[in-house]
Amino acid sequence: MDDIDWRPDPSLPIPLYRQIEEFMKRKIAGGEWTVGMKLPSQRDLAAAFQVNRSTLVTALEQLTSQGYIAGKSGGGTTIIHHQPERQEEAPPPPNWNAYVEDGVHYPNLPTIQTINRMEFDPEIIRLGTGELSPELLPQRQLQQLFAELARQHVPLGYEEALGSYALRSQVSAHLKTIGIAAPPSAILIVSGSLQAFQLISAGLLEKGSAMLLEKPSYLYSIHAFQSAGMKLIGLPMDESGLQLSHVERFKRQYDASLLYTIPTFHNPTGAIMGEARRRELLQTSRRIGLPILEDGAYEELWFDDEALPPPLRALDMHGQVLYVGTMSKVVSPGLRIGWVVGPQPVIERLADIKMQTDYGSSSLSQAAAAEWFGAGLHAEHCRVIRRQLKERRDCMLRLLDAHWSDFATWNTPKGGFYIWVTLHAEISMAALFERALKRGILINPGYIYDRSAKKQLRLSYSYASFSEMESSVRQLAALIGQLGNHLR
Amino acid sequence: MDDIDWRPDPSLPIPLYRQIEEFMKRKIAGGEWTVGMKLPSQRDLAAAFQVNRSTLVTALEQLTSQGYIAGKSGGGTTIIHHQPERQEEAPPPPNWNAYVEDGVHYPNLPTIQTINRMEFDPEIIRLGTGELSPELLPQRQLQQLFAELARQHVPLGYEEALGSYALRSQVSAHLKTIGIAAPPSAILIVSGSLQAFQLISAGLLEKGSAMLLEKPSYLYSIHAFQSAGMKLIGLPMDESGLQLSHVERFKRQYDASLLYTIPTFHNPTGAIMGEARRRELLQTSRRIGLPILEDGAYEELWFDDEALPPPLRALDMHGQVLYVGTMSKVVSPGLRIGWVVGPQPVIERLADIKMQTDYGSSSLSQAAAAEWFGAGLHAEHCRVIRRQLKERRDCMLRLLDAHWSDFATWNTPKGGFYIWVTLHAEISMAALFERALKRGILINPGYIYDRSAKKQLRLSYSYASFSEMESSVRQLAALIGQLGNHLR
Ligand SMILES: Cc1ncc(COP(=O)(O)O)c(C=O)c1O
Ligand SMILES: Cc1ncc(COP(=O)(O)O)c(C=O)c1O
C-alpha cells in the first residue's frame, strides 16, 4: 500500500473526498487492499493523495460509516470489510481487476468515459452533446401515446426475431417517405443503431476485416468495431463528404469488406454528400465490389427547403447498401429503437444473432414507436424540430462570429446537430477539455473522432440552452486564448 | 443453377410454394442467381424441388408479381430483379451470402432457429417454451402502470451508464427480499440477463477462456459465449445440482476463469442446489480462486412453503459471486429488463461496454420496471403466479403418469417451468421434433442443452393451456411409441 500513485483530480466537479472514498473502495472491493491491512497514518495518506488533512478525514469517516474500515483502539486504521471466517488461512477475494483487464472488449477512451459520466451532472453545460435538448423532445405527444397504449393490449412476451410486425410495417411506410422501398421482411428492429453496428460486426465481418469510413467519424468514438477486431481505415473528406479518390486504392490495399458512411449531416463535421457524388460512390462500390453501410441518423433534420439528395439506399438498384436508421436523433434516444434495411439473408442472419444477444428489443418501446408513426405524429414533430434547430444553429453561428473568428474557422451546417470548428493554431485539446470541465462546460474534442484532429472540436447546438451557448462560447474563447498564448 | 440440392420441408407448417418462393428470393437477393439468368423449365424445377407442378407455378407467380422474374415471349423464365443499366459489363450485386458466412458469430442451431420462428405461429402448441403463458402475465396491472406513466414525466433521453437510478434503487430493495445486499452503485441494469452474459464474455473473459457450467445447461442453447471464443466445460449433475467432485480438477485441467450456475430451478432440469452444497461450492470456489456467475432467473418461482436455500450471492462474504437476475420469467420478457450485481470495478467495466453496445436499455422499460416494484405489485403477483404454475405442474405430472410411465422417467420440480424427461430407450429426437412439429406441437429436445442428451427432452408447463398439455402429451406418447418400435 506504500506507493499510491493515484491522486484525486481537482478538475472534476466531484468533491475530492468522494474521489478518495471511491478509490479506496475500489482497492478493497477489487481485492487489492485486503482485509486486516493497516492503512498508513492520516498524515501520510493526505500527503500521498496531495489533499488537506480534513479532506482525508472526511473520506475516512465515509468509509468507516459504511463498514469498510475501522479505527483500532491502539491507534491506526484497518480494513475490515469482508471479514474472513478464519483470518490465517483465508485466501483473498477473487482479483476482479485482473478480469476487468482481461476482457476482449476495449474500454472507452478516458475522455469519453468522462463525457458519459459528466453528462448526467445536472449542473453541467453540455456543449458537445449529440442529443436533442429535453425541451425539443416530444414529451407531451409521447405521454398521450402512453395513455393510448394503456388502453391497448401491450405485448409483454418475447418478440419475433425481426421485431414486432406492427412496427416493421410502420417503419416500412416511414422509409417510403424518404425514398426507400423496403417491405417489413427486409427490416430488422434493433435497440438503437449502435446495436446494429455491433450485430453487423459480429455477424457479417470476419475477424480482422477492414472497413473504410470517413475521417473523422462518429465510429471512431466508440469501440464496438475495434473490439470486434475490425480495422478502421479513414478516408479524407471535403465539404461534399468523403473523397472518392482513395476508395478503390484503400479497398485493394487493405482488402476492405465494407464502407461505412454518414452521407447526410455527418457526425462530427455536419457535411452532406451531394447527389452526384452519391451516384459516383454507388458506381465505384459496385465496380470494385465493396458494399456500403449507410448511417441515416440525421437524415430528416434538414433546415432549408432545397431538395435533399436521396439516401444511397434509395439510389441503390443492386442490393449494395445496408441502411441503418434510428429514432434517437429526432424523437427520443431513450426509446432505443432503430432499424436495419438490407437483403433478406443479411437481415435474417442479423436477426439470429440479435436473438442470441438480447432476445429482441423492448416490446414496450416497439409498441410506443409503432404508435408514434401510426398516429401520424412524426411529420408535424419534424417540422417543429427543424425550425427550432435552425434557430439554435443560427444563434451558435452568431456567437462564434462574435467571439471566435480571430482564432478559428468553421462550416455552416445545413442540418443535423454539429459545427466542426478548426482552430488556427494547435493547443492542448486535453487541457482545454479539462479547464472547460472545471468551469462546468462539457465539450467534445476532435481527437475523439480522429486521433490526428488536434485543432478541432465538435460543438453541438442541439442541447444547451441559448443562454448556456452564449456564456460557454464566451468562456471557451477566453480559455482557448490562455492556452494559445504561448504559441503567439 | 443445375444442381439445386435444396427441397422444401413438408414437415414445416409453411406452405411449400412459400418455401420455394423464399428460397428463390434468397438466391437472387444474395447474388447467387444473377439477373439475366434463365430458369430451368417448370417441369425440371418441379422435379428438382420434388413438388407438384401446380405448387411450383404458384411460387413462380408470386415471384413474377413481385418483379423478381418474368416469362419471356419466346418461352422460358428469366431473372429480372435488379436490372443493371448496361447488362454486358455489369458486375453482380455483392455476394451477401459470403458475408453471412464470414461473421465471427455462430448461427443458432437449426433446431433452435426453427423453434424461434415457430413460436410465433399462433396455431402451434408450445410444449417446450420457457415463458409464462400470456394469461399468466400481469397484463391488467401493467396497463394500469402505463396509464400511471402517462401522467408522469417519462425520461426520453439517453440513460446513465448503470441504468436509471430510480430502477436501481427499486432493484436494490427487491434484492434485499431474497437476501442479497446490494447498493444501487453495485447494480447494472441490462436488457435481459442474456445481455449480461454477452457483456461478461466481452468485458471480463479473455478470448479462449474456459467456463465451467452444469451439463445440461441453458447456456448451451445459445451461442453467445461460444461465439466470443469461450470454451464451455460441463459438470455432471445430480438431484442437488452440479456435482462438486469435478470442480477443482476441471478448473486446473482447463484453467477455467468462471463457473456459471443456475442453482435454483435449473434450466432445463428443474433441479435445486441444497444449502449445504451451496456453502461447499462457495468454499471450493474461494479455495481454488474460481469466481461464480449465478443466474437467478427462476429464484422466486417456488411452489412449496419450505424455506428455499438463499442465493449464493447472499452467502458470499468475499465478493466471489456475480449475480444476474431478470424480470423475464416472473413479470414480462418483453420488458427486456435484467440486472447484474457485483464488485464495483466489474460493474463499471460492464457498464462501459454496455454504453459501447447499445447506449443503455430502453428508458420506457426502465421506467415501467421501476414503477412495477415501486407500486408494490410484485409480491402479490408472485403469489398468484406460484399458485397457478403449481397447478400446471401437477396437471403435467398427472398426464405423464397416465401416458408416459411405460417408456420414460422424470423429476418433480419444486419450482420454475420445466420437467426433464428421460426416455428408457434412445430414439431419434430430431425425428420426434419434426413429427411433433408436423402435428403442430413444438418441443425442446434435450440435445439443445447437452449434445449427448439423446434420450432427454425438456417439457414446460408454463406456456401451453391445460387442454393443449393434455392433447400434446397424448400425441407425443404415440409418436414416441412409433419411433421406438423398431427398438423393442
Ligand atoms: C451518426 C450516428 N449514428 C448512430 C448514432 C447512435 O444512435 P442510436 O444508437 O441511439 O440509434 C449516433 C449517435 O450519436 C450517431 O451520431
Ligand atoms: C436460466 C436462464 N437465464 C437467463 C434467461 C434469459 O432471460 P432474459 O434474457 O429474458 O432475461 C433464461 C431464459 O430462458 C433462462 O432460462
Major interchain interface with per-chain residue totals: A-B, 104 and 106 residues
Instruction: List how many beta strands of chain A DSSP finds.
Output: 17
Ligand types: pyridoxal-5'-phosphate
Number of helices of chain A: 17
Radius of gyration of chain A: 26 Å
Distance between the termini of chain A: 45 Å
The residue-averaged pLDDT of chain A reads 89
Strand ordering within the main sheet of chain A? 4-12-11-10-9-5-6
Oligomer: homodimer
Largest β sheet strand count, sense and barrel closure of chain A? 7 strands, mixed
Could you estimate the helical fraction of the residues of chain A in percent?
40-55%
Class by SSE composition of chain A? alpha/beta
Strand content of chain A: 5-15%
The residue ranges of chain A in which pLDDT falls below 50 over 5 or more consecutive positions are 83-90
Question: Helices, strands, pairings?
Answer:
2 copies of one chain form a homodimer.
Chain A: H1 16-29, H2 42-49, H3 53-65, E1 69-71, E2 77-79, H4 96-102, H5 110-118, E3 125-126, H6 139-151, H7 165-177, E4 187-190, H8 193-203, E5 210-214, H9 224-227, E6 231-235, E7 237-238, E8 241-242, H10 247-254, E9 256-261, H11 275-288, E10 292-295, H12 312-315, E11 321-326, E12 338-341, H13 344-358, H14 363-374, H15 378-403, E13 408-410, E14 418-423, H16 429-438, E15 441-442, E16 444-445, E17 456-460, H17 466-484
Parallel strand pairs in A: 3-15, 5-6, 5-9, 9-10, 10-11
Antiparallel strand pairs in A: 1-2, 4-12, 7-8, 11-12, 13-14, 14-17, 16-17
Helix pairs in contact in A: 1-3, 2-3, 6-14, 7-14, 8-13, 15-17, 16-17
Bound molecules: pyridoxal-5'-phosphate (2 copies).
